[in-house]
Design brief:
The chain is α+β, with helices and mostly antiparallel strands. It has 11 helices and 20 strands. It has helices spanning 9-14, 38-49, 66-69, 82-89, 91-114, 133-148, 158-165, 183-196, 245-248, 310-331, 376-391; strands spanning 4-6, 27-34, 54-57, 73-75, 122-123, 126-129, 154-157, 171-175, 178-180, 200-202, 207-211, 221-225, 230-238, 254-263, 279-282, 289-292, 298-306, 339-349, 356-359, 366-370. It has a 9-stranded mixed β-sheet. Residues 30-390 form the FAD dependent oxidoreductase domain.
Amino acid sequence: MDLRSGRAFWPLTNGLMHTYPPLSGDERADVLVIGAGITGALMADQLTAAGLNVVVTDLRDAAFGSTSASTALLQYEIDTNLVDLIPMTGQADAERAYHLCREAIDMVRDLTAELPDDCGFRERGSLYYASNRRDARMLAQEHAARTRAGLNVEHLDARNLKARFGITAPAALFSRDGAEVDPYRLAQHLLQRAQSRGARVYDRTEVTRLDEPRDRHGGDFTAHTDRNAKIQARWVIVATGYEAEKFLGRRLAQLKNSYALATEPIAETDGELWPTGCLIWETARPYLYARTTQDGRVVIGGEDDNHHSPARRERALPAKQKRLERKLGKLLPHLHPETAFAWAGTFGETKDGLAYIGPREKGDRLLFALGYGGNGITYSVQAARLLTDLIQGEEHDDLRIFRLDR
């Protein structure tokens, strides 16, 4: 199934960075990672750094699915506000989830410092503005909850918001903890580094059936592929987004489409396109979100709707593009953008906004790394850490927050 429509910005601006062959013969590994997008790439990098023998497969070209459609706003804020998450999970777990996403931003910064280039990583603040007056009251409560949790966030009233950011809204929260990155370039560099450590990456190779070992605690999984070749592995990590239901037997997330566009570089600036160049998003659901790129473009997205089929998503794209253009003009009227690329992607949305990370059930060696929602990359960074440690015999309590049976 096509995960995106239109002309996604990242693969076009980067070109075909690397190519990977399809599987042509049987393989054996400590860990098989199914999925070669940003989640699978982060997993492969972390696993090989730990000295594990890794094979990565993808039924598409590597990083050409949801990764290439991502707008890659790196935020610690979860799609579910902290004040709403606390009743769902308890205060300690809700606050810990927020802190894990904040820590993941620093981990991405450290990763990009080790790679051949910075992958477009830039530390940015995050501006979360109220879409209406009722949400302004909610933001005051959210500010108090985040402050109690030890998160550094500033509350802005309408006057200060307009003066500092030029945005007209009843209120906003501003956090200095945020960043942006090029997800396609990051995934490709991580896959290359994993390869240099001995990982084998095969794209255009679909795992059609996964045979589990008879002994839950011993023996290997056997992954059958559409290439008439098999992969045997002691551990399997499924990093295929919502397509994971094929290996899980049930759906964990509701499918949504999100639409995005990238403008041509905007020349009428001698620095940032708006004050601090921060990430911008709103309290409405679905929400509008915006960021910049290193070459002076604006990337804006939103207009989410329920997913039905790739064809229907494709038909909706022109009208969604027009709506995004109008919203960008209203939000930042001083800009005079021209759309260069417009695309849409399908993603999964969970009830609590949290990822699903861990074994199918306790003791399983079939593991899942499913980011979902607006925090897919930050969740995947933590999934790579948590699952690598689990394979090496160290089970973190943090896995409990993201367990599949919650």
